Automatic annotation (TrEMBL):
Protein name: Alpha-amylase
Lineage, uppermost ranks: Bacteria, Bacillati, Bacillota, Bacilli, Lactobacillales
Highest taxon, organism lineage: Bacteria
GO molecular function: alpha-amylase activity; cation binding; glucan 1,6-alpha-glucosidase activity
Coiled-coil spans in chain: none
Transmembrane region(s): none
Source organism per UniProt: Lactococcus taiwanensis
PANTHER family xref list: ALPHA-AMYLASE FAMILY MEMBER, OLIGO-1,6-GLUCOSIDASE 3-RELATED
Length: 536
């Protein structure tokens, strides 16, 4: 295994279903990732994170695993995976897998056994409680809507699921479950995998079923299964395994607050870094707030400055495209966003297509929807709304936007497949594709290079200025100064009153990256989406 210098690295996230299809079935596959390794290497990243590729009924994009030791046939075979691992390492790229251990598929043999009877040896692998069809164990809700319980009339009990009913939660209190999971984790690490992205990891522990939900707003409904005390023991056991292999680990840890994040991610912490989910808060129309984004980022950066480490990202497979959420759809806005987060303190992740400025998909028909929970939501809305209104409502702020196929070229099907793509391709692919859209790609290359070449950017200190400015993000990374106007309007900054900028050393600032290079001035007017990176 290669050395785990996670503080210097940049990651690239691959949603395999939509990356590259090589056998014409319209579904991206492992051979497709292998084919595109040179592209990924050209970007300059250090590792790839691949969304789940395990055997799965694919009710939730592979986050419903029915065999932890097998690759889903849609993606290829274990041999293909070994080749991918080997070739990636030859390209100097580490590979981290998604580790989904909060739940399994309802088709996993453990659950099929568990369901058989109350005294089945696997019954306690999951969370079963006495219930009737009318009276479920409590009022808790699932993330995907509806009760977190599904009643089983055969055994007159209900099982708990934080996500879809096809994703029963494992009972982490059961040491046998933990041993099975740890065995599997070791198996993949032995195979040569470099680490994991830990899915929904903050949900492992649940409060007593008698807990009454205090608020149905915000994160209120998830309080009884988000970072609940007792989780420390499971995480400590997992950490021991990760450490013994020097694994690269990033936790998806919703509900872990920025003040708690240092304990999760410092030297004694469970994982190298965690994804915060707070900056994603959006209005119902899918728009994010620039100032909201800025405030969340500044808080996480400050709270993890002394101890701990951030995972930085704008997009992933669960979020709409950042160019439409925080930007105005323009390339200029995508570039400003790239600069705003790639030079922060932490390990940046780039989500496939983000480097091309891929946009949200203009849905016109419900036939274009693929996620089961989105389709269910749509069907529910049809009782009150017209088809068009319901479609508009479910797609205006949906993770579906992130999942359309990669746009490789202006050829048929954007060069993604020779068959019929499993999900429609964005109609803008003749303009927005890897062959034509090189400007943003090249900016990402430069930003990655800056991190690799400068310790100050990789792991130096960070200090924010103009904290209350509604649209301009300003920070120093030791000898670097980063200024980004994320707004559609001009902005003015007056550094002359800021103490750190009053001495003569500012005259040493020279431009290292810019949308329109010019010398640093204490009084600066910024064009919309202008960015300036200076170095002393
Ligand atoms: O997402 C989990 C996830 O986003 C929740 O843990 C989060 O706490 C909640 O939505 C916050 O409001 C992961 C995967 O990224 C997603 O694709 C899967 O559907 C999900 O887990 C289930 O495995
Ligand atoms: Ca395929």
């Amino acid at each position: 295994m290669m050395e785990n210098d996670f503080r210097k690295m940049v990651g690239y996230q691959i949603y395999p279903k939509s990356f590259k299809d090589t056998n014409g079935d319209g579904i991206g596959d492992l051979q497709g990732i292998i084919e595109k390794l040179p592209y990924i290497q050209q970007l300059g990243v250090d590792f790839i994170w691949i969304n789940p590729i395990y055997k799965s009924p694919q009710v939730d994009g592979g986050y419903d695993i029915s065999d932890y030791y097998a690759i889903d046939e849609r993606f290829g075979s274990l041999e293909d995976f070994k080749t991918l691992l080997h070739k990636s390492h030859e390209y100097g790229l580490k590979v981290i897998m998604d580790l989904v251990v909060n739940h399994t598929s309802d088709q996993h043999p453990w659950f099929l056994e568990s369901k058989k009877s109350k005294d089945n040896p696997y019954r306690d692998f999951y969370l079963w409680e006495d219930a009737t069809a009318q009276q479920l164990p409590n009022e808790w809700r699932s993330f995907f809507g509806g009760s977190a319980w599904t009643y089983d009339k055969e055994t007159e009990q209900a099982y708990f699921h934080a996500f879809a009913k096809e994703q029963p939660d494992l009972n982490w209190k059961n040491p046998k479950v933990r041993q099975e999971i740890y065995k599997m984790v070791r198996w993949w690490l032995e195979l040569g995998v470099d680490g994991f992205r830990l899915d929904a990891i903050s949900h492992l522990q649940k409060m007593p079923w008698s807990y009454k939900i205090k608020s149905w707003r915000g994160d209120g409904p998830w309080v009884p299964f988000m970072n609940v005390s007792g989780i420390e023991d499971y995480m400590t056991e997992l950490k021991a395994i990760f450490d013994s292999y020097g694994a690269l680990t990033v936790g998806e840890a919703s509900g872990v607050r920025s003040m708690q994040a240092p304990d999760w991610t410092d030297e004694k912490g469970y994982v190298n870094m965690i994804f915060e989910l707070e900056h994603n808060v959006r209005k119902a129309n899918g728009r994010g707030s620039i100032y909201g984004y800025k405030k969340v980022i500044m808080r996480w950066q400050n709270d993890l400055l002394a101890r701990g480490w951030n995972a930085l990202y704008l997009e992933n497979h669960d979020q709409p495209r950042s160019i439409d959420v925080f930007g105005n759809g323009s390339l200029a806005s995508a570039k400003a966003l790239a600069v705003s987060y790639m030079l922060l303190r932490g390990t940046p992740f780039i989500y496939q297509g983000q480097e091309l400025g891929m946009r949200n998909f203009p849905f016109t028909s419900s036939d274009q929807l693929r996620s089961e929970e989105v389709i269910a939501q749509y069907e529910n809305l049809l009782t009150d709304l017209s088809a068009q209104e319901a479609l508009q409502k479910v797609t205006q702020d949906s993770r579906e936007h992130a999942r359309t196929p990669m746009q490789w070229s202006d050829k048929a099907n954007a060069g993604f497949t020779t068959g019929r793509p499993w999900m429609d391709i964005h109609p803008n692919y003749p303009q927005v594709n890897a062959e034509k859209q090189t400007e943003l790609f090249e900016l990402y290359q430069k930003l990655i290079q800056l991190r690799h070449d400068n310790q100050a950017i990789a792991s130096g200190s960070i200090y924010f200025y103009f904290e209350r400015h509604p649209q301009v993000l300003v920070y120093t990374r030791d000898e670097f100064l980063v200024i980004v106007n994320l707004g559609t309007k001009k902005a003015h900054l007056d550094f002359s009153k800021v103490e750190a900028f009053t001495d003569g050393s500012v005259s040493n600032y020279h431009s290292v990256l810019s949308s329109q290079p010019r010398p640093f001035e204490r009084s600066m007017s910024l064009a919309p989406f202008e960015y300036q990176v200076y170095k002393k």
